[in-house]
């Protein structure tokens, strides 16, 4: 068996055009979507992500208000900046680029953003909504995963889904969404120290790898025909490596391209989320 690869780039282009069309419709109504993007420090990797997000917004017609704060910014100063943006009616959504420097409390910063402006979907109110039949805001990477599974028909009631990784950006929200009332799959959350890791993965219909451990998932861990989505990334010696070994393609049915970033899907879902928030505000 040779796996079929999800065409992330083609899907990304289609999603970009859909968002452009939605933004044009809003602009004709006199509404200009605006994303406030807060970046702390000068981490090169974060700066690259921020640059790509800004470029995507410009392509579709979403204004960006970029705020750059020094690495040494205090918790109170960062919170004051977030609260000011939150109170600005011209700002449709707020994204604070994570991770933040270790001296800052990420949880407090996330909770300072109103749920209806939280484009990352990490506010406790938005996370809780993932378990309901109508989630409010789905974290962007998780929304990208859900889109792949939904559009290809792989989400089925009772499907066995193994999520490798328990982080707050992917593992936790993915488990809440996919086991919630809107998706009805059966979830197992795993990590590198889980017992029987190989056997659980082998008996799963869908594997979502988000551990950030290069080539952790090998062919002997994957059942024939399984769907494998790799969003974990490491850069050993400057080369991108996903959580899933390329040879998994020999046994999987469908999988994301090996050792390739999932970033295009995450960024396209960011655009959709900003536009969703604008449209919900207009309908309120």
Overall mean confidence score, pLDDT = 94
- The proportion of strand residues reads 15-25%
Spatial ordering of strands, largest sheet: 1-11-8-7-5-6
Number-wise, the strands total 11
State Rg: 19 Å
Q: What is the CATH architecture assignment of the largest domain?
A: 3-Layer(aba) Sandwich
Unreliable stretches (pLDDT < 50, length at least 5) are none
Order of helices and strands: EHEHEHEHHHEHEHEEEEEH
- Describe the sheet with the most strands: 6 strands, parallel
Question: Could you describe the 3D structure shown?
Answer:
- It comes from Gluconobacter japonicus.
- Its EC number is 1.5.1.5, 3.5.4.9.
- With 284 residues, the chain is of the alpha/beta class.
- Helices cover 39% and strands 15% of the residues.
- Helix 7 (171-179) links the parallel strand 5 and strand 6.
- The longest helix has 21 residues, at 8-28.
- The protein is globular and about 50 Å long.
């Amino acid at each position: 068996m040779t796996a079929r690869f999800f065409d992330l780039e083609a899907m990304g282009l289609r999603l970009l055009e859909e968002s452009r069309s939605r933004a044009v419709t809003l602009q004709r109504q006199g509404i200009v979507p605006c994303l406030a993007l807060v970046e702390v420090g000068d981490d090169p990797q974060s700066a690259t992500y921020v640059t790509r997000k800004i470029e995507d917004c410009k392509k579709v017609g979403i204004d960006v208000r970029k705020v750059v704060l020094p690495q040494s910014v205090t918790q109170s100063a960062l919170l004051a900046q977030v609260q000011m943006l939150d109170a600005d009616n011209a700002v449709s959504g707020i994204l604070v680029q994570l991770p933040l420097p270790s001296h800052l409390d990420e949880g407090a910063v996330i909770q300072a953003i109103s749920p209806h402006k939280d484009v990352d979907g990490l506010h406790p109110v938005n996370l809780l909504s993932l378990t309901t039949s109508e989630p409010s805001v789905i974290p962007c990477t998780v929304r990208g995963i859900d889109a792949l599974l939904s559009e290809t028909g792989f989400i089925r009631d009772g499907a066995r889904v193994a999520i490798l990784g328990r982080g707050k950006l992917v593992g936790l929200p993915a488990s809440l969404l996919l086991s919630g009332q809107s998706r009805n799959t059966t979830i197992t959350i795993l990590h590198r120290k889980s017992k029987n890791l190989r056997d659980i993965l082998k008996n799963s219909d869908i594997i979502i790898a988000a551990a950030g451990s290069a080539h952790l998932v090998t062919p002997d861990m994957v059942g024939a025909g399984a769907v494998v989505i790799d969003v974990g990334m490491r850069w050993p010696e400057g080369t991108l490596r996903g959580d899933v070994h390329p040879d998994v393609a020999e046994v999987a049915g469908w999988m994301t391209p090996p050792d390739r970033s999932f970033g295009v899907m995450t960024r396209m879902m960011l655009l959709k989320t900003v536009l969703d928030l604008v449209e919900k505000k207009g309908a309120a």
